[in-house]
Amino acid sequence: MRADDLPRDAADAGAGAGADGGARRPAWRRRGPMEAAATALIALGVLMLLQPLSLVLYEYSFMTTLAGTVMFMIVSKFPD
Fold first, then answer.
1. Is residue 80 part of a domain?
2. Which pTM does this prediction carry?
3. In a structure prediction context, what are the per-residue pLDDT tens digits for the chain, which is 80 residues long?
4. For 9, phi and psi rounded to 5 degrees?
């Protein structure tokens, strides 16, 4: 039986299923939500850097921004 003879959804199921068999990944392994979290962490770090009220927030702002940047670089390699 050729792929042309199969219904459209049956032909697609075998074509791009990948190693996980087409199963849905958990949220922490998906690119979109993790990129959004990394971007939010970078934005939090910048806000901590720019606020004039707390020296403690200012001190941790660089590490927060750096952690968000490293997280974004790693997560951007995740599959869609």
1. no
2. 0.67
3. 555 665 555 545 544 455 555 568 777 778 999 999 999 999 999 999 999 999 999 999 999 999 999 999 999 998 87
4. -70, -30
Whole-number Å distance between alpha carbons of 29 and 32: 9
Per the structure, the count of domains in the chain is: 1
Q: Which of 29, 32, 41 is nearest to 71 (CA)?
A: 41
Give every CB contact of residue 42 below 8 A, 6+ residues apart in sequence.
Answer: 65, 68, 69, 72
Q: Are 54 and 45 in contact (CB under 8 A)?
A: no
CA distance linking residue 45 with residue 70, whole number of Å: 13
